[in-house]
Each structure stands twice: as structure tokens, then as C-alpha cells.
Amino acid sequence: MITVTNVSLNFTGTTLFKDVNLKFTPGNCYGIIGANGAGKSTFLRILSGDLEPSTGEIAIPDHMRMSVLKQDHFAFDAYTVLDTIIMGNPRLYNIMKEKEALYAKEEFTDEDGIRASVLEGEFSELNGWEADSDASRLVQGLGLDVDALYRPMEALTGNEKIKVLLAQALFGKPEIILLDEPTNHLDIRAINWLEDFIMDYEGTVIVVSHDRHFLNTVCTSIVDVDFGKIKMFVGNYEFWYESSQLIQRIMKDQNKKSEDKIKELQSFIQRFSANKSKSKQATSRKKLLDKLTVDELPTSSRRYPFVGFTIDRELGKELLTVDGISKTIDGVKILDKVTFRMNKGDKIAFVGENEIANTTLFRILMEEIEPDEGTFKWGVSTSRSYFPLDNKDFFDENDMNLIQWLGQYTKETTETFMRGFLGRMLFSGDDVYKPVKVLSGGERVRCMLSRIMLFGSNVLVLDQPTNHLDLESITALNNGLIDFKGVMLFSSHDHQFIQTIANRIIEIKEDGTIIDKVGTYDDYIS
Fold this sequence. Notes:
By secondary structure, the chain is of the alpha/beta class. The protein contains 19 helices and 18 strands. α9 runs antiparallel to α10 and α10 packs antiparallel against α11. The longest helix has 16 residues. It is globular and about 85 Å long.
């Protein structure tokens, strides 16, 4: 159990949050949510002991071991993958190294023998004999080969290092696991494996994530960082979101009788209480929801951007034909005779581990690079907008402010129009005069979406558009693309984003060929 008592944090005279009193208990997974900059990761650092609060204390029983997902991808480059994973249990790793040093001595004394006996006993208690096999199961579950255990960390790619650091955090059955954005850069299969791992885990998991499907699947409670406070609500993210939206609507309806409000909320609670997810957490979640009162339900001060895409021209019958496109990069065949036809109404999600292939195909279709062989043809009725994976060329070394930058893409350049448009994308007041080169990753994405919204294109090509966005912006974008009347090709790691938008799935396999299936994403992976 973790007990948080009267915790507050001040940065340079500004209170990030105050009077935080929470308890985190075993057998539960807690999802920490909040707008960008609200203090989610900061609160996680306080729980881990990496940051001291301004007031209050964090109490954790001495016998409980806490494991934290490391963020420095280069910190373990001097070690093998196996050593890096076992370091997740520092005591076990230190015992193994001390044993190796003792047994390597040329002169093994009686004192060494006594010490070795003590170490062997503790090694066994910590399941040291299963360490290699446990590490193997973790890396395989996350999508790496067993052979990777014996490779040096410095030889791995960035995404492979992320998986190893996640395996390190999960290793050795710690009583408490803290995870900051664990699904970033994981493929869907690895995310599904992680979901199952957490659902079966008997300790306490506290996670910061922007992945709504992940939060809905694993969380028994939501910890909301908002209003300068941190509050805990029973249920998963969907329950928190829908109850929050419901309360906001009811609060706006001043003529509604109090009794009607209570009945509607109680009916809502009852419906979610009966909505069981996976078995281990369903029973405890239902008991907690049964005790929930109307007064305990959340309200939120969050603002959601407006994301909506209109089309200036109806689509004809001929949209896009791709015929035999192949591309080799650095001696590796990324695309191999890729062939498909886009039909009216298609919203095609490109999925799978081969992210470079998705980006390469999109860049070919947008005529940024040429294929080695094959052709493609856009229909004459199509007008296309592209959201690239890397948008730095639009912002770096650019001295324009937001109004000037957005003014490049519209004929309506009055300050009233620009302020109104940017305001709907959450740029208000003096924000509109910020130089675009200093914008955060999330702000740049909102700018890129604004640019596309101004074009009125009937075809969207979007490469990982949810990267850097907070939950509110992801939700707004998700809803905007559901309502979009044109056609789309897009890639994403967000399960719910794909499931709710796509009606067709294309996976580019490691050999560059494709699997093309009509249907939802859940249908595809089932």
C-alpha cells in the first residue's frame, strides 16, 4: 500500500497541486490522467521518491519493493539485455555479481564459503534460479527474440530499448510498479501482452498513459490531476469520461429538477457496475462502484479543442489505385509489390510493426519520394491533405508567430477570424503571438490539424496523428475523424482510435507484402 498524506508541490511560487490524500492498494491498477502540464509525471516522480513534495509525505511499507519504468534509453548501454532486465531487482543483481566475484577468486577462503552460503540462500529466496527464464518470458511477450537477451543494449534500436526497459520494470514480481507512458512506441501485440500482464498482476500498478483502450482495459480507478488537486475515482477511463461529460451537461441545465439529476446519474452508475471487463478486476470494481455516490462523481475544468474536417468537393468513383509499388531502403526491402485500390467510404488503418514501411508508402503517395518500381494514381476528384510523421520542417527555424503561420494556408486572414479559429484549437490570448519554433509537440500537432482543417480536402493521409497529444485532444481528433465524410489512410498505435475510425485494415508485413482486410480492427486481430 502507498499512503499519500497532505502532499502539495510548488514550483517557483506556483502551486501545481495541494492537499493530496490518497491510498493505493494491492490488486488494483490506477490510471493517472490530466491535461499536458497538469503534473501527472511529476506526481509519479513524487511517488517514486525521485522528487520531494513541498509538504506532506508518502508512506510505503519497508518490505515492499517498488519498480519504476526508466526513461533514459542510453543508461544501460554498457550492459547486456539480460543484465539490464535483472537490474529491475537491484538486490538480486548485486547478489549475482557478488557470487560471480567470489567464485572467480583464485584463493577461496572459509570466510568466502560462509559468505557464498548466505548469498546462495538469499539468491534462492529471490527466485534467482528462474531469473533467466523470467527475463526470457518478458522479452518474448514484448515481441523480442530470446537471442536478444545476450546482445549489448547499445546494439538495440530505440524501440527495442523501450521494450527492454519495460521488461526491467516488470521483472521479479515487485509489490509496486510505476509506469510513465508504457505503451509509447509499442506495437499492438506488445500492448495486448502488457494489458494481460497487468490484469493478472497481484500488486499495485500506477500508470500514466494517453492510450484510452489501455486505460479502459487495465484500470480499476482513475486518478485525475485537475483544478490544482488530485482526486481518485472508481472505474476505468470510459466511466470517468462519460460521467464527467454527463455531469457537465446536467450542470448546464439549470431547469432540471435535482431528483431527476440524481436518478440519471444513479442509472448511469448502475449500468457501468454491470459492465464487467476481465474477471480478476471485475468483482472488486463492481463492489466499489456499488458504493459510489452521486457526490463523488467527477467534474472537470478541461477544455477540448474543436476538430472538424469539411470537404469542399464530393468524391467520384476513381479515388486511388496502387499497383505493384516496391521500395528498398539501406538494402532492406520495405515495400514489395504493394497493390490495393481505395474505394468510396474507405477509412484505411495501416497497422503492424513495420512503421517505416507505413511512412514510406505515405511519402510515396504524397510524392515526397519515388518508388523503385510500381505506380499509383489519384482520381481527378480527389484533393489531399497530409499529416507527416515528422513535422519539424514546418516549424524549426521559422520566426513566424501563430497567426502569421496559419495565415499562409487561408484566404481569410483577418485577425478576428484567425483568433476565433485558433481559439477553438485552444490557442487564446497572447498565445497567438508565440513564435511557432518554440511550440511544444502537442501544440505543433494542433497547428498541423488546424492547417488541414482549412484546406477542405476530401482525402486525408495521416501518419501517427495522435503522437504528442493529450487525452482531450486525442478524443476531439477521434470524434472529428469519425464524422469526416471523405476517405482516409492513416497509421496509429491507439487501439480505440483505430477501432472507432477504420473500416478496413492493411498490415504491411516485415517482408514488405500486405494483408488487406475489410472490417474493424477488433475483427482483424481476433
